[in-house]
Protein backbone atom coordinates (compact mmCIF):
# COMPACT_ATOMS: atom_id res chain seq x y z
CA UNK A 1 0.00 0.00 0.00
CA UNK A 2 2.66 2.54 -0.94
CA UNK A 3 1.45 6.12 -0.98
CA UNK A 4 -1.23 5.51 1.66
CA UNK A 5 -0.64 7.47 4.86
CA UNK A 6 -0.98 5.98 8.33
CA UNK A 7 -4.28 7.75 9.02
CA UNK A 8 -5.88 6.05 6.03
CA UNK A 9 -4.42 2.73 7.13
CA UNK A 10 -6.01 3.12 10.57
CA UNK A 11 -9.36 3.94 8.97
CA UNK A 12 -9.03 0.85 6.75
CA UNK A 13 -8.17 -1.23 9.83
CA UNK A 14 -11.38 0.04 11.42
CA UNK A 15 -13.18 -1.64 8.52
CA UNK A 16 -11.39 -4.93 9.21
CA UNK A 17 -8.72 -4.63 6.48
CA UNK A 18 -5.97 -7.08 7.49
CA UNK A 19 -3.64 -5.91 4.73
CA UNK A 20 -3.84 -2.35 6.08
CA UNK A 21 -3.05 -3.66 9.56
CA UNK A 22 -0.04 -5.58 8.25
CA UNK A 23 1.17 -2.48 6.40
CA UNK A 24 0.78 -0.27 9.48
CA UNK A 25 2.71 -2.83 11.53
CA UNK A 26 5.45 -3.06 8.90
CA UNK A 27 5.83 0.73 8.84
CA UNK A 28 5.62 1.48 12.54
CA UNK A 29 6.88 -1.50 14.53
CA UNK A 30 10.63 -0.82 14.06
CA UNK A 31 10.57 2.73 15.47
CA UNK A 32 8.01 1.80 18.10
CA UNK A 33 10.27 -0.98 19.40
CA UNK A 34 13.22 1.44 19.52
CA UNK A 35 11.24 4.02 21.49
CA UNK A 36 10.01 1.38 23.93
CA UNK A 37 13.53 -0.02 24.40
CA UNK A 38 14.76 3.47 25.31
CA UNK A 39 12.35 3.40 28.23
CA UNK A 40 12.65 -0.27 29.22
CA UNK A 41 15.59 -2.61 28.69
CA UNK A 42 13.57 -5.78 29.38
CA UNK A 43 12.95 -7.32 25.96
CA UNK A 44 10.10 -9.45 27.27
CA UNK A 45 8.24 -6.37 28.51
CA UNK A 46 8.88 -4.58 25.21
CA UNK A 47 7.55 -7.58 23.26
CA UNK A 48 4.43 -7.75 25.47
CA UNK A 49 3.81 -4.02 25.11
CA UNK A 50 4.22 -4.24 21.33
CA UNK A 51 1.70 -7.08 21.18
CA UNK A 52 -0.78 -5.28 23.45
CA UNK A 53 -0.37 -2.07 21.46
CA UNK A 54 -1.13 -3.60 18.08
CA UNK A 55 -4.01 -5.61 19.53
CA UNK A 56 -5.43 -2.34 20.87
CA UNK A 57 -4.95 -0.71 17.46
CA UNK A 58 -6.87 -3.53 15.78
CA UNK A 59 -9.66 -3.34 18.35
CA UNK A 60 -9.90 0.45 18.67
CA UNK A 61 -9.15 1.66 15.14
CA UNK A 62 -12.79 2.67 14.75
CA UNK A 63 -12.44 5.16 17.59
CA UNK A 64 -9.37 6.87 16.08
CA UNK A 65 -9.98 10.60 15.92
CA UNK A 66 -6.40 11.79 16.02
CA UNK A 67 -3.81 11.81 18.76
CA UNK A 68 -3.84 14.05 21.80
CA UNK A 69 -0.09 14.43 21.25
CA UNK A 70 0.06 15.56 17.64
CA UNK A 71 -3.17 14.58 15.90
CA UNK A 72 -1.59 11.86 13.77
CA UNK A 73 -2.11 8.12 13.64
CA UNK A 74 1.53 7.65 14.60
CA UNK A 75 1.04 9.88 17.64
CA UNK A 76 -2.09 7.89 18.52
CA UNK A 77 -0.11 4.65 18.22
CA UNK A 78 2.66 5.99 20.48
CA UNK A 79 0.10 7.15 23.07
CA UNK A 80 -1.32 3.62 23.18
CA UNK A 81 2.15 2.09 23.49
CA UNK A 82 3.29 4.50 26.21
CA UNK A 83 0.20 3.79 28.27
CA UNK A 84 0.66 0.04 27.81
CA UNK A 85 4.27 0.40 29.00
CA UNK A 86 3.09 2.25 32.10
CA UNK A 87 0.58 -0.55 32.70
CA UNK A 88 3.38 -3.12 32.38
CA UNK A 89 5.48 -1.23 34.94
CA UNK A 90 2.50 -1.13 37.30
CA UNK A 91 2.04 -4.89 36.95
CA UNK A 92 5.71 -5.38 37.75
CA UNK A 93 5.48 -3.09 40.78
CA UNK A 94 2.59 -5.16 42.11
CA UNK A 95 4.79 -8.22 41.76
CA UNK A 96 7.49 -6.44 43.83
CA UNK A 97 9.89 -6.22 40.92
CA UNK A 98 11.39 -2.91 39.85
CA UNK A 99 11.57 -2.18 36.12
CA UNK A 100 14.92 -1.21 34.65
CA UNK A 101 14.36 2.22 33.16
CA UNK A 102 17.93 3.40 33.07
CA UNK A 103 18.42 5.82 30.18
CA UNK A 104 20.65 5.08 27.24
CA UNK A 105 23.70 7.33 27.64
CA UNK A 106 24.09 8.24 23.96
CA UNK A 107 21.57 10.70 22.51
CA UNK A 108 18.85 8.95 20.57
CA UNK A 109 18.11 9.77 16.96
CA UNK A 110 14.61 10.97 17.89
CA UNK A 111 16.12 13.46 20.35
CA UNK A 112 18.41 14.79 17.64
CA UNK A 113 15.52 15.08 15.17
CA UNK A 114 13.32 16.72 17.81
CA UNK A 115 16.00 19.25 18.68
CA UNK A 116 16.50 20.06 14.99
CA UNK A 117 12.77 20.28 14.32
CA UNK A 118 12.24 22.71 17.16
CA UNK A 119 14.82 25.12 15.81
CA UNK A 120 18.33 25.94 16.88
CA UNK A 121 17.42 28.02 19.91
CA UNK A 122 14.81 25.67 21.39
CA UNK A 123 16.73 22.59 20.29
CA UNK A 124 19.87 23.88 21.97
CA UNK A 125 17.99 24.65 25.18
CA UNK A 126 16.49 21.16 25.12
CA UNK A 127 19.89 19.54 24.53
CA UNK A 128 21.38 21.53 27.43
CA UNK A 129 18.82 20.24 29.94
CA UNK A 130 19.98 17.62 32.40
CA UNK A 131 18.93 14.15 31.19
CA UNK A 132 16.45 13.64 34.04
CA UNK A 133 14.72 16.93 33.20
CA UNK A 134 14.64 16.14 29.49
CA UNK A 135 13.08 12.70 30.24
CA UNK A 136 10.25 14.32 32.21
CA UNK A 137 9.58 16.86 29.44
CA UNK A 138 9.61 14.13 26.83
CA UNK A 139 7.19 11.92 28.76
CA UNK A 140 4.77 14.68 29.75
CA UNK A 141 4.89 17.03 26.78
CA UNK A 142 5.79 14.86 23.80
CA UNK A 143 4.26 11.58 24.93
CA UNK A 144 1.27 13.20 26.62
CA UNK A 145 1.57 11.23 29.85
CA UNK A 146 0.15 12.37 33.17
CA UNK A 147 2.33 13.06 36.21
CA UNK A 148 1.35 9.67 37.65
CA UNK A 149 2.10 7.82 34.39
CA UNK A 150 5.42 9.65 34.04
CA UNK A 151 6.34 8.68 37.61
CA UNK A 152 5.64 5.04 36.90
CA UNK A 153 7.47 5.17 33.57
CA UNK A 154 10.59 6.75 35.06
CA UNK A 155 10.42 4.88 38.37
CA UNK A 156 10.39 8.02 40.54
CA UNK A 157 7.83 9.52 42.95
CA UNK A 158 5.15 11.87 41.58
CA UNK A 159 6.58 14.75 43.60
CA UNK A 160 9.93 14.24 41.90
CA UNK A 161 8.24 14.38 38.49
CA UNK A 162 6.52 17.65 39.42
CA UNK A 163 9.77 19.14 40.70
CA UNK A 164 11.69 18.08 37.61
CA UNK A 165 8.96 19.44 35.33
CA UNK A 166 9.09 22.80 37.14
CA UNK A 167 12.91 22.87 36.95
CA UNK A 168 12.80 21.97 33.24
CA UNK A 169 10.30 24.74 32.48
CA UNK A 170 12.39 27.26 34.42
CA UNK A 171 15.59 26.19 32.68
CA UNK A 172 13.92 26.36 29.25
CA UNK A 173 12.50 29.84 30.03
CA UNK A 174 15.91 31.10 31.14
CA UNK A 175 17.67 29.61 28.12
CA UNK A 176 15.17 31.14 25.70
CA UNK A 177 15.00 34.61 27.26
Automatic annotation (TrEMBL):
Keyword hit for Transcription: yes
Keywords for this protein: Sigma factor, Transcription, Transcription regulation
Pfam family, one: Sigma70_r2
InterPro entries in alphabetical order: RNA_pol_sigma-70-like (IPR039425), RNA_pol_sigma-70_dom (IPR014284), RNA_pol_sigma70_r2 (IPR007627), RNA_pol_sigma70_r4_t2 (IPR013249), RNA_pol_sigma_r2 (IPR013325), RNA_pol_sigma_r3/r4-like (IPR013324), WH-like_DNA-bd_sf (IPR036388)
Domain RNA polymerase sigma-70 region: 24-94
Keyword flag Flavoprotein: no
NCBIfam families for this protein: sigma70-ECF
Official protein name in the record: RNA polymerase sigma-70 factor (ECF subfamily)
Amino acid sequence: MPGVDEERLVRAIAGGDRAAFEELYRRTSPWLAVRLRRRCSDEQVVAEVMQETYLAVWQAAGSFAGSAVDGTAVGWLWTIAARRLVDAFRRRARQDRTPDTSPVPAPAAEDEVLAGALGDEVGGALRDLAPELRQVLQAMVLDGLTVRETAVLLGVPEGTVKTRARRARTAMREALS
